[in-house]
Amino acid sequence: MSTTAAALLTAEEYAELPDDGRLTELVRGVVVPMTLPTPRHGEICLQAGYLLKQYLEMHPVGRAVSNDAGVITERGPDTMRGPDVAFFSYAKTPRGPLPPGYLSVPPELAFEVRSTGDRWRKINEKVHEYLEAGVVLVCVLDQQTETAHVFHADQPPREVKRDEELTLPEVFADFRVAVRRFFE
Description:
The protein is α+β, with helices and mostly antiparallel strands. Helices cover 24% and strands 30% of the residues. The chain has one domain: tt1808, chain A. The protein has four helices and twelve strands.
């Protein structure tokens, strides 16, 4: 076994690492540091979580999670990403408190916020990983253009402009939110 292969971590080993205060992801077995997001990024994440939670209170079909809650997107070597906001249906995660540790199932929906320093190449890689892992929809909220980009494994991406309504029929039959609300 090569030195490089021996140094690769599994998602389970990554989960057991002590918290040293750094924001990281596991990418193909390697711990990769992440830059702390800006307050504007956090504001948009909070608004996305709020709008999703508001919908779920009216339609209790699942749960919303945020704050880069880990999602295993690849195995062998393992990759663990943290969507800004995600939705898990009760069909995948039973009602009640979530168990400790990472879930073994992907969310149906992941929101990512594109910050000013984020490059589309990296975002598209992450979107592809989510879709390959079984996430039904990925919605990228672009704070620079105040648009939403919706990705689905079987369709071309669609851009939803600021004054248009974001719908997510593959996950929620009647979810409708003006895109501008994510950026207010």
